[in-house]
Specification:
108 residues, elongated, 20% helix, alpha+beta, 3 helices, two-stranded antiparallel sheet, single chain
Length: 108
């Protein structure tokens, strides 16, 4: 089984506000335990090769059906992402032997 991919990146709040105000973005008002909130759908594009800024992914807001059918060009890219390199590695048997000796007691 392959390890899940992890990304880090940025979302541009200014572009999100502009896109929502355009009227072309699919957004919903939902009720949560914190009160009413606005949420929106997005597309998350993953590229095999990094772009010129070393980004491997792009985040784009999703158009309303009416905007899509009217031929509105979706230019609402609001963020990017990069592959995140795992910061841990599996311990080898030798690693464990170096750290754990017979005198260690475990009280469970």
């Amino acid at each position: 089984m392959s390890k899940p991919l992890s990304f880090y990146g940025q979302l541009n709040f200014t572009k999100i506000k502009e896109a929502l105000k355009s009227g072309h973005i699919k957004a919903q008002k939902i009720q949560t335990k914190e009160g009413e909130q606005i949420v929106f759908d997005y597309n998350f594009w993953v590229h095999e090769e990094a772009d010129q800024y070393n980004n491997n992914a792009a985040v784009q807001m999703h158009l309303k059906k009416e905007a899509f059918e009217a031929g509105v060009k979706n230019t609402y890219y609001i963020g990017n992402g990069r592959y995140q390199t795992p910061k841990v590695e599996d311990a080898t048997e030798q690693d464990i032997n170096n750290l754990v000796d017979d005198a260690d007691e475990f009280n469970f």
